[in-house]
């Protein structure tokens, strides 16, 4: 067991016999192990919470173990404080797949963060910062209602502005597969993957800062890559919902994806935007699906495991298809 392998060297103070290089390398290795452990802690906590919900299984997990709630079960089994148990459960909800009323498993609210955590690229501190910042938005609402709540004078303010998740990334890191970005949290900057930064930036305003050799700000450019209300209406009328074949998520619950990435010069206009549901938008870089525009309408190419020939095909245009069926009826 890993615990047995670590327990004796730690008890004997063997770290004092390490060279400087080995000591620093040990720190790196142990920190990597810690991220895997954090991922396991949250995954297990999330599953404990899921199995404790009424109706998931014949006897809820907490009932079988004589506990009042999942937090108590984690507190007793892991021998951690009540606050630690509650914090793990709260963070785990954001990365735990959801069982719908129809019995289908839906992706976790922050599925991309879940995959980053599982791959050991996201720390517990970073995930907690992200989930705390995004928690008010996790109960998804329509884009119009969300926009109205950002504009409401009653919305909370921090330093005169609405609370904002700040992700900082250097330009040379943004397009790297293993690039690093940083989330601004209460305890300073926490590293996250550049892939996560790209997804966050897809919906927000980008501030491009040019620094001189001495660190002085030479230029500040604000790039708004968010589609307007009327652009969204037009794209929604064209696509009707998520364009990935087989997906039934309607337009009001979709996000707009830049077909040609904004960072690569793609414009924020109706000819470069398509509707994707939350899940397909978060996984578009890794799922194998590709999107392109042809004569003003989107086309998609499935991954090889769906179509070995990877042929381009018309997108899943829900509203258009329904109109076509109604006309032929």
Describe the biggest sheet? 3 strands, antiparallel
Number of helices: 13
Decide which structural class fits the backbone.
alpha+beta
Mean pLDDT: 76
Task: Briefly summarize what is shown.
With 329 residues, the protein is of the alpha+beta class. The protein contains 13 helices and twelve strands.
What would you say this structure looks like, in words?
The chain is of the alpha+beta class and 329 residues long. It is built from 13 helices and 12 strands. It has helices at residues 2-11, 20-51, 61-64, 70-78, 82-92, 111-118, 124-134, 143-151, 171-174, 194-201, 229-239, 278-282, 318-328; strands at 98-99, 105-106, 167-168, 180-185, 188-193, 205-211, 217-224, 255-258, 273-276, 290-294, 297-301, 313-314. It has a 3-stranded antiparallel β-sheet with strand order 3-4-5. Strands 10-11-12 form a 3-stranded antiparallel β-sheet, with no helix packed on it. It has a two-stranded antiparallel ribbon with strand order 1-2. It is globular, with a radius of gyration of 23 Å. The termini are far apart. Residues 140-149 and 157-162 have low confidence and may be disordered.
Explain the layout of strands and helices.
Blueprint: H1 2-11, H2 20-51, H3 61-64, H4 70-78, H5 82-92, E1 98-99, E2 105-106, H6 111-118, H7 124-134, H8 143-151, E3 167-168, H9 171-174, E4 180-185, E5 188-193, H10 194-201, E6 205-211, E7 217-224, H11 229-239, E8 255-258, E9 273-276, H12 278-282, E10 290-294, E11 297-301, E12 313-314, H13 318-328
Antiparallel strand pairs: 1-2, 3-4, 4-5, 6-7, 8-9, 10-11, 11-12
């Amino acid at each position: 067991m890993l615990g047995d392998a670590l327990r004796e060297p730690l008890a004997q103070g063997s770290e004092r016999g390490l060279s400087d290089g080995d000591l620093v390398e040990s720190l790196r290795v142990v920190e990597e192990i810690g991220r895997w452990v954090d991922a396991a802690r949250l995954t297990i906590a999330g599953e404990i919470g899921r199995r404790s919900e009424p109706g998931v299984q014949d006897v809820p997990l907490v009932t079988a173990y004589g506990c009042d709630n999942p937090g108590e079960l984690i507190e007793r089994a892991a021998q951690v404080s009540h606050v630690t148990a509650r914090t793990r459960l709260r963070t785990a909800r954001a990365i735990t797949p959801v069982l719908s009323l129809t019995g289908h498993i839906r992706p976790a609210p922050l599925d991309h963060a879940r995959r980053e955590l599982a791959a050991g690229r996201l720390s517990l501190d970073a995930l907690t910062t992200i989930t705390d910042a995004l928690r008010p938005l996790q109960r998804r609402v329509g884009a119009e209602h969300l926009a109205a709540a950002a504009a409401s004078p009653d919305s909370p303010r921090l330093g005169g502005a609405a609370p904002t998740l700040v992700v900082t990334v250097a330009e040379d890191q943004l397009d790297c597969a293993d690039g690093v970005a940083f989330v601004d949290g209460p305890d300073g900057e926490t590293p996250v993957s550049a892939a996560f930064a790209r997804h966050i930036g897809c919906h927000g305003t980008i501030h491009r800062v040019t620094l001189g050799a001495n660190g002085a700000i030479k230029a500040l450019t604000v790039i708004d890559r968010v589609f307007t209300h009327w652009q969204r209406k037009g794209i929604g009328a064209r696509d009707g919902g998520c364009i990935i074949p087989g997906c039934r998520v309607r337009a009001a619950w979709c996000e707009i994806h830049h077909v040609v990435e904004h960072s690569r010069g793609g414009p924020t206009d109706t000819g470069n935007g398509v509707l994707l549901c939350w899940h397909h938008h978060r996984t578009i870089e890794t799922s194998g699906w590709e999107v392109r525009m042809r004569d003003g309408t989107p086309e998609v190419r499935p991954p090889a495991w769906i179509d070995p020939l990877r042929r381009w095909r018309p997108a899943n245009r829900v509203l258009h298809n329904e109109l076509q069926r109604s006309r032929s009826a």
